[in-house]
């Protein structure tokens, strides 16, 4: 019995050894990637969760404070304002950022001339470093000498306070964000549009379908998957908006303070408390993880 | 109940931990500072080195470092650029990159001390005589409640009303008689804004904590407060008639008189730039703003005047100084104090410094509240009298009145409070329907929660 067990064990070991030996190269190649993920993604993630339950001053050892960081952020009057603003921003950014690229891509796809030029023109803002784009808009939005008000004055329309008024601040930020990001989405739609088989349109035309019906019954159903993927990606990206409010309206403005801005305030300006910032980050992480899970589910089903 | 129990338990554990570690290390409560080898080689990392763009000041700083190293052959000074930046401070501390002796504003020490992020230097001060002549109220800013000292003040200022004398003349106002009340500021601002579309009568901040800073200054000017200590507990003290008056005045000037310009959400450099461009009439500022405006915008010292803070019940006093890294060794703390008492806190160097400034044609004689008491204070005044090179009569209204206006230091956790108070400032300047009572009451709730953490 003992001999049989020892024999089985030896056989298992040699099988395992062979398996490892066979795949040694693969493991070696993976090691670099795994180490990078572990060091730059998983470790900070775990550390962030731990930090959300700790108080730290970077001099003495951190100590556990239970859920105090979470109760502190729930007590902050800006907590719900920030979530509300983030959702409003995400909603507005989707209305503009989701449909404008779709419309643009269909328009560019239908063009007979200058298609290449417009493809590049639409993508150009993406190539600009985000901070440069935002600073450019800071000048455009200036209520005194800014470009937008100069144009409005020129055509005899009433001027706007843009980022400096409660009623227009958020929409002004959304415009910047849409302008800066629509290039990527437009190109993805264009690629999807070009992969729609031409015979579908031909058949529709033969059946006497108008341009609108072709769009409704051929183009949009064919784009459904890419539209869903982009929608989820945009939700995940726009919920993390930071540069636009940070640069254009500051970190104290209750009209535009977002979740990311609040995290920044907790860590670096108002509270200088990394525990509170980590607690808020964990909450944002949970919300984004839900959308990411849906995204993974959607793309896996497609595969 | 659970939370308070948990807090007490954590507190007890901490106390026990600290007690244990203190016992393990031997008692630290003796009167003497820990001994260190006076000849041991020390590399002292400091900041405050002027950037390349300020070539003259940089050279002067480095010349002094060289001179200091010559006098102290065992100390190597590693001078870094940069001053206090709250946005990078925590990261530098976490990464072990914080200098041994680092620059702070008067608004920083309270929270750094509360978070135990700075070293206690009290026991070393007896070895450095000049520190005894620093103003006690300024030393208090760098101390905790039990009197332990964590840093030294290096410069201080009080706020007044900076104005463009030329615009005053153009608007038929008397440049030698600047506004003394907020009512007069409003009238003067209206007259200056009336000069044309691009003219701004009065400017004020509302971004990156500068709005809260000016709100505080304006509250103090009316005799108000931002926070008061009631029986050992700090409470917000601005949700009252004075708070309303400050915001209402700004709201009226912005929307009724239209004398504050359309462009708002201004931060520190914006008003200096506007003053430099010659289109801004007045703003609340420290005297050293004049030097920056003249240097950066090729202005003329004769063009600017300085009046007292309007109403003048009290004026905000701020400033800067140096603190010590919590991990600094006794050798480094002694080397740091040697450097500070050689460079910033050295009464015997005051005249030489003013002499150097006068040779560089940089201003001597800007009205500043004294850093020193006693003999050192007299030395500073004598040096100013001897070497002043500015049209000091332009600053006479400020200098004359300041002697009778009490200086008031900033509230505890000032930067955090300023960030909250930016909001009412922003709102009244950007929303003509802003509800002042609600803004003040919201800010009060937030400031009270910040103050709850102040011991």
From TrEMBL, chain A:
SUPFAM superfamilies: MetI-like (SSF161098)
Keywords assigned: Cell membrane, Membrane, Transmembrane, Transmembrane helix, Transport
Primary localisation category: membrane
Membrane topology: Multi-pass membrane protein
InterPro entries recorded: ABC_transporter_permease (IPR051393), MetI-like (IPR000515), MetI-like_sf (IPR035906)
Keyword field contains Membrane: yes
Domain ABC transmembrane type-1: 83-295
Residues passing through the membrane, by range: 24-43, 87-108, 120-141, 169-192, 223-243, 274-296
A Pfam family assignment: BPD_transp_1
Subcellular location: Cell membrane
Family of this protein: Belongs to the binding-protein-dependent transport system permease family.
Protein name in the entry: Sugar ABC transporter permease
Taxonomy of the source species: Bacteria, Bacillati, Actinomycetota, Actinomycetes, Micromonosporales
From TrEMBL, chain B:
Pfam family name, one: SBP_bac_1
KW Signal (keyword) present: yes
SUPFAM superfamilies hit by this protein: Periplasmic binding protein-like II
Residues in the signal sequence: 1-24
Annotated InterPro entries: Bact_solute-bd_prot1 (IPR050490), SBP (IPR006059)
Lineage start: Bacteria, Bacillati, Actinomycetota, Actinomycetes, Micromonosporales
Domain of life: Bacteria
Name this protein carries in UniProt: Sugar ABC transporter substrate-binding protein
Keyword Signal: yes
Keywords for the protein's UniProt record, in alphabetical order: Signal
